[in-house]
C-alpha cells in the first residue's frame, strides 16, 4: 500500500511537471505569433515583407485599439514610423499639452503622432536610449500650457510658438509656426550651421537602432 501511494505521488508529480512544461511551451510561442500578427511599428511591417510607404495600423502593447501611422519604407532602408510631418501649414501645431499627448492631425498629411504613442513605440523598439527619451537632456515636453523647459524665467513653448522638448529656449523648434520667419518659425538647430533657417517641410521618424 505504501508503495502504491508513493507511485501515485510520483505519477502526480510527473503530470504536474508535464502540465507546466506545456504551459511554458505555449507562452513562449504565443508572443511570437502576436508580434507577427500585430505589428507594433513600421519596422515590424517591413519584416513581414511590406515595402510600400503608406498608412498602416500598428498595435501598441498598452493600447487595446489599433493606431494609424504613416510608414516610410523607402528612406535609407525604410521601416520608419513617422511621428511628425509638416508640409503646408494646414494643421495648427500651437496647441495644448493634452493634444501633444494624444496626437493630432492626419497621418497622410500634417500631424503629430502623440507623445504617448511615441513613448510606447520607442520603449518597445528598444531605442529609447538615444532617441526621443521623455526627459530629453533633462527636459520634459513643453507646450504653452505646460512649461517643463530648462528656462526658469521664460515659457519657451509660448515664446517660440510650438511644442517640444525645449531646453533653454532653444535649439530646435520643429513644431513652430509654419511659414513664419525668425524665432517662432520651424527650425532645426543643427541644420544650416545653427542659423535661424526656417524650414517648410519636415518629417520626424523613428525605427529600432538595431537596424542602423
Ligand atoms: Ca520655463
Keywords:
212 residues, alpha+beta, Gamma Fibrinogen, Chain A, domain 1, 2 domains, 6-stranded antiparallel β-sheet, two-stranded antiparallel ribbon, 5 helices, 8 strands, 30% helix, binds calcium ion
Summarize the structure.
By secondary structure, the protein is an alpha+beta fold. The chain is built from five helices and eight strands.
Word description of this protein:
With 212 residues, this protein is of the alpha+beta class. It has 2 domains: 1-37; 42-211, Gamma Fibrinogen, Chain A, domain 1, CATH 3.90.215. The protein contains 5 helices and 8 strands, in the order H-H-E-E-E-H-E-E-H-H-E-E-E. The protein has helices spanning 2-37, 42-47, 97-102, 115-125, 156-159; strands spanning 54-58, 67-72, 80-86, 104-105, 111-112, 172-173, 187-188, 202-206. Strands 1, 2, 3, 4, 5 and 8 form a 6-stranded antiparallel β-sheet that branches. It is elongated, with a radius of gyration of 24 Å. Residues 147, 149, 151, 154-156 line the site of calcium ion. This is Fibrinogen C-terminal domain-containing protein. Residues 33-210 form the Fibrinogen C-terminal domain. InterPro entries: Fibrinogen-like_C, Fibrinogen_a/b/g_C_1, Fibrinogen_a/b/g_C_dom, Fibrinogen_C-term_domain. It holds the Pfam family Fibrinogen_C. It comes from Mytilus galloprovincialis (Mediterranean mussel).
Amino acid at each position: 500500500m505504501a508503495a502504491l501511494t508513493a507511485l501515485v505521488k510520483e505519477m502526480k508529480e510527473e503530470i504536474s511537471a508535464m502540465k507546466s512544461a506545456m504551459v511554458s511551451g505555449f507562452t513562449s510561442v504565443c508572443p511570437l505569433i502576436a508580434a507577427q500578427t500585430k505589428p507594433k511599428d513600421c519596422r515590424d511591417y517591413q519584416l513581414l515583407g511590406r515595402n510600400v510607404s503608406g498608412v498602416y495600423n500598428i498595435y501598441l502593447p498598452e493600447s487595446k485599439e489599433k493606431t494609424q501611422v504613416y510608414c516610410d519604407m523607402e528612406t535609407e532602408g525604410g521601416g520608419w514610423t513617422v511621428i511628425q510631418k509638416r508640409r503646408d501649414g494646414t494643421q495648427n501645431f500651437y496647441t495644448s499639452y493634452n493634444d501633444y499627448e494624444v496626437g493630432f492631425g492626419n497621418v497622410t498629411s500634417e500631424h503629430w503622432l502623440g507623445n504617448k504613442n511615441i513613448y510606447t513605440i520607442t520603449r518597445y523598439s528598444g531605442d529609447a536610449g538615444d532617441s526621443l527619451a521623455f526627459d530629453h537632456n533633462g527636459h520634459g515636453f513643453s507646450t504653452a500650457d505646460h512649461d517643463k523647459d530648462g528656462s526658469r524665467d521664460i515659457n519657451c513653448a509660448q515664446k517660440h510658438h510650438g511644442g517640444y522638448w525645449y531646453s533653454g529656449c532653444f535649439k530646435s523648434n520643429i513644431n513652430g509656426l509654419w511659414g513664419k520667419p525668425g524665432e517662432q518659425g520651424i527650425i532645426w538647430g543643427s541644420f544650416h550651421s545653427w542659423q535661424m533657417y526656417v524650414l517648410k517641410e519636415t518629417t520626424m521618424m523613428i525605427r529600432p537602432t538595431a537596424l542602423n
